[in-house]
From TrEMBL:
UniProt keyword terms in alphabetical order: Cell inner membrane, Cell membrane, Membrane, Transmembrane, Transmembrane helix
Chief site of localization: membrane
Membrane topology: Multi-pass membrane protein
GO cellular component, one term: plasma membrane
Native organism taxonomy: Bacteria, Pseudomonadati, Pseudomonadota, Gammaproteobacteria, Vibrionales
Species this protein is from: Vibrio rumoiensis 1S-45
Source taxon at top rank: Bacteria
Annotated InterPro entries: Inner_membrane_protein (IPR052937), UCP028777 (IPR031308), YccF (IPR005185)
Name listed for the protein in its UniProt record: Inner membrane protein YccF
Annotated TM spans: 7-23, 29-50, 71-90, 96-122
Domain Inner membrane component positions: 4-54, 76-126
The keyword Magnesium belongs to this UniProt entry's keyword annotation: no
Location(s), subcellular: Cell inner membrane
Length: 132
């Protein structure tokens, strides 16, 4: 079921939001100052391509210890991210969610877009794991 969900997701719009994440990552790399944000963009962009069967969790909850991305610097990074890119990616995901909710078959995809919109507001300190 996950495979079918991921294929439908990818073909019906997941590819576009994943590409937006990767484009944001490329802008981060080009600006040089934002390179720390680029890794989060590429990891979550890959997650956006095929989200079913995976979930985003805070690294501090996974490893039970703080690191640079989960501490004070990560919080500052997320605030900067929110202002410059996070809000725009969240708007894209919410717009896609509304389009998915119009149809009954699209409701699971709309729910996934809402989860991704929340992640896009503060991606630093997040990691992607497989759900079993």
């Amino acid at each position: 079921m996950r495979t079918i969900g991921n294929i439908l997701w990818f073909l019906l719009g997941g590819v576009f939001m994943g590409l937006f994440w990767w484009i944001a990552g490329l802008f981060c790399i080009i600006s040089i100052i934002c390179i720390p944000w680029a890794k989060s963009c590429f990891v979550i962009g890959t997650f956006t391509f095929f989200p079913f069967g995976k979930e985003a969790v805070k690294r501090s909850e996974l490893s039970f210890k703080e690191d640079v991305g989960t501490g004070f610097l990560g919080m500052i990074g997320n605030v900067v991210w929110f202002v410059f890119a996070g809000v725009w990616l969240a708007i894209g995901h919410l717009t896609s969610a509304v389009a998915c909710f119009v149809t009954i078959i699209g409701i699971p995809f709309g729910i996934q877009h809402i989860k991704l919109a929340v992640i896009s507001l503060a991606p630093i300190g997040q990691t992607i794991i497989k759900k079993y």
